[in-house]
Specification:
Chain lengths: 495, 119, 143
């Protein structure tokens, strides 16, 4: 058995990978669901085992095909990506069992198993991006996850889902291609694709201009993927029209994994010292993040659709993460990394709960949700709690992030930034309040009178994440502890 | 380092910009995918061209040959081509479904229909 | 076109040779240009050729949809399976060297099966794409 434990990095990616074709081969809806649940739980177990092992023994390196790095592809687990692996597989492990009833209600029966196969592929891609130590391998996994994401979005009920999937496909492909151009330039300058080796060899490169081009291409490419403020156009439609469980899974994982790639490139590959001192990167990223935080929150306030409102809120929350990156000190990076987890869990909870509302009410526009607080008390209460975490009320996970962001801003001496962070949180109060007003303070809509609470399995798994978003507000030993270690690792690599 | 000696880069950049321009400027969904294809093709050239060694042969060790072209870019681009094919197939499949749902593949008309539906 | 006797006869003569050529490309991949990817596309092309001459319904009978879908899945499974066998035999994932008594033979065996997997999946995917696009237009014409 100890032999198998050495292969955990490979199994982390391979198990979801082989379950996708198995699902297609068997073609049974129930089998598809059971296998997806099993695989996502095993993935979570593997991710936790890897996280523990990294804590004990340091970096784990796994050579695919026994080709030693940097020649072969290396899977490399360190404090940062072990953390992201846990996040991705945790969300998958909650979303997969939730999905059965939700998918049965939203998709034709003969398409269900295909959606589960796509879900497994998407999980493979996201875990692969995170675990691999090879920049071209990142591209391959990025496309595996993206292509399966496009399919899952296109499976949404309304025809607008098709247009949303098409738009995302075009923008996502441009983003991925920009990324390949960037790593192509890096490869031309260094002759290697291994992340650790790349970082080593870049120090000796004298000709700086191709590196700057590569840096720009990678920033824009990954920026498209993670919905950095002006490049977020694909996100609201994609989140609004995708099936509920897909929205929950994507909002909690896909953009987060892209942020991880950005962190990897900025700090491990390029090294913060060269980039952030010689270039206006930090200022540009700071400006975009501030613009994103404020504008996207403002736009969210004026949406009529619950799902769309929280999609815009995602754009502003991602801006908090990039804000932490732009500050580039230990508190800022800790805030970014911890917000990957906090926002992932909070937004996952919100979209899972909205999936329950969609099941009962059909549409999730505000005029149909009046009085939902009495009809679906647990769902509404969960949404309010997660909303508080989005705002950053003390006692919720969101507060922890805001705290570290403020500390980081003060460290840099950006007092105005503290005001902006508080201001954008106040805008978040406005849009969460809109839901409270509709749910609790409005007369019940006749059309929603007879509809009760969502099925227990859906509600239960959604509440797992809601409780998670409270738990990480109190006990931060895992979330902040892991994030701080990862931040130290990134900044250490930069020196 | 004359301009002419790097002509493969000029071709690459031309294809890159042309492809991206088509994606942005054309309203027809199929034409957008064509532009996307051209854009991706430029990357294939970016990788492949520097891998070739003038006078070099295929990287199979044999007597009489001393210079070999770099096979790694070819392998990488083979993967990228497969990804490109998959993207194109999926994109076209979505366009077919859009055509069935909206009766058009012009972006302007689709957005117009969506707007009318909202109102 | 389905009534044209010249096309039908030529097609029937050509298709076996196309398939044979696909096998040649597949197995010669060890020594020269070729391999599973190209072979898979040639196999798919020969069946698309059949469909153009004899029509889609006849092709659907010859190569039913469920076989195509299983091909898509099983090729990936063969590929991933080779990797897992590597783990079972004491190597790393996708380690070819442990598959046989010495590394060179092991490598041959590993690449052979990986290429089989690639060929099966590629021809499956190509046919699936063809069926989906061709089938759709036909539905619209009839309806």
């Amino acid at each position: 058995m100890s032999g198998l434990l050495d292969h955990l990095p490979a199994l982390q990616v391979v198990l979801p990978l082989i379950s996708a074709p198995l699902i297609v081969l068997v073609r049974r809806q129930r089998f598809a669901w059971l296998l997806t649940v099993a695989v996502s739980w095993i993935s979570l177990a593997i991710a936790i085992a890897l996280f523990v092992k990294v804590g004990q023994t340091g970096v784990i390196s796994y050579a695919i095909g026994s080709w030693p790095p940097p020649w072969g592809i290396e899977y490399r687990v360190d404090a940062l990506n072990a953390y992201v692996l846990v996040l991705v597989s945790l969300v998958a492990a909650v979303v997969a069992p939730y999905a059965r009833i939700s998918i049965a209600a939203e998709l034709p029966r003969e398409q269900e198993y295909l959606l589960f196969a796509m879900f497994c592929l998407c999980l493979t891609g996201l875990l692969g991006i995170t675990i691999t130590g090879d920049v071209f391998n990142v591209f391959v996994f990025l496309e595996i996850s993206s292509l399966s994401t496009y399919v899952m979005i296109a499976l949404g009920q309304r025809r607008k889902a098709l247009v949303a999937a098409y738009q995302y496909l075009v923008m996502g492909t441009i983003g991925a291609t920009f990324y390949v151009i960037g790593i192509g330039l890096l490869y031309l300058m260094t002759g290697t694709l291994n992340i650790a080796d790349l970082a080593e060899r870049l120090r000796d490169v004298k000709e700086i201009r191709p590196l700057l081009a590569a840096y720009a291409f990678i920033t824009v490419g990954i920026g498209l993927k993670l919905a950095l403020f002006p490049l977020h156009q694909w996100l609201p439609n994609a989140y609004t029209f995708a099936p509920s469980m897909v929205t929950a899974f994507l909002s909690a994982t896909a953009t987060k994994v892209s942020v991880y790639v950005l962190l990897r490139f900025y700090f491990t590959v390029f090294g913060a010292s060269i980039l952030f001192e010689g270039l206006p990167t930090a200022d540009v990223l700071l400006a975009l993040s501030v613009a994103g935080m404020v504008t996207a929150s403002l736009v969210a306030v004026f949406q009529d659709d619950l799902k769309r409102m929280f999609a815009y809120s995602s754009v502003s929350q991602i801006a908090y993460i990039t804000l932490g990156i732009s500050l580039a000190n230990e508190a800022g990076l800790t805030a970014s990394i911890v917000h990957l987890l906090n926002h992932g869990i909070t937004k996952g909870a919100i979209f899972l709960l909205i999936g329950g509302i969609a099941l009962r009410c059909g549409v999730v526009s505000f005029d149909r949700l009046r009085g939902i607080g009495q009809r679906m008390p647990l769902t509404s209460f969960g949404l309010v709690i997660s909303g508080l975490s989005l705002i950053g009320i003390p006692g919720t996970a969101g507060f922890v992030t805001k705290w570290y962001l403020v500390v980081a801003a003060i460290d840099r001496g950006y007092w105005w930034l503290v005001a902006v962070i508080v201001g954008s949180s106040l805008i978040a109060v406005a849009y969460v309040w809109r839901f409270v007003e509709v749910a609790y303070l409005s007369e019940p809509d006749e059309r929603s009178v007879k509809r009760g609470e969502a099925p227990a399995s859906m509600l239960g798994f959604a509440w797992v994440l809601v409780i998670g978003s409270l738990y990480f507000g109190f006990d931060t030993s895992f979330s902040v502890g892991g994030a701080r270690e990862a931040a130290a690792l990134l900044l250490g690599g930069a020196r | 380092m004359s301009l002419a000696s790097h002509y493969s880069y000029w071709v690459t950049i031309f294809l890159m910009i042309a492809g991206l321009f088509i994606v942005i400027a054309r309203g027809n969904l199929v034409k957008k995918l064509v532009g996307l294809g051209i854009f991706q093709t430029s990357v294939y050239l970016l990788y492949i061209a520097p891998g070739k060694l003038i006078g070099g042969t295929a990287p199979i060790i044999a007597s009489g040959f001393r210079a070999y072209s770099n096979p790694l870019p070819h392998v990488l681009i083979l993967t990228a081509i497969v990804v490109g094919v998959a993207t194109l197939a999926l994109g076209l499949a979505i366009v077919v479904r859009i055509r069935e749902a909206y009766g058009t593949i012009e972006e302007v008309e689709i957005l117009e229909q969506d707007r009318r539906e909202e109102a | 076109m389905r009534r044209d006797i010249v096309l039908r006869v030529i097609a029937k003569i050509l298709i076996p040779f196309m398939l044979l050529f696909a096998l040649y490309v597949q197995f010669h991949g060890d020594f020269g240009p070729g391999g599973g990817f190209q072979a898979g596309v040639i196999i798919a092309a020969s069946i698309v050729f059949y469909a153009i001459i004899f029509g889609l319904p006849a092709t659907r009978q010859l190569v039913p949809e469920w076989i195509v879908e299983s091909m898509v899945a099983s090729g990936v499974l063969i590929y991933a399976g080779v990797g897992l066998v590597g783990i079972l035999l004491g190597g790393n994932y996708l380690d070819y060297f442990v598959l046989d008594h010495d590394p060179v033979h092991g490598e041959h065996r590993g690449i052979f099966w990986v290429e089989v997997g690639v060929a099966v999946t590629v021809s499956g995917v190509m046919l699936k794409i063809f069926y989906m696009f061709a089938g759709r237009r036909r539905d619209e014409d009839n309806g």
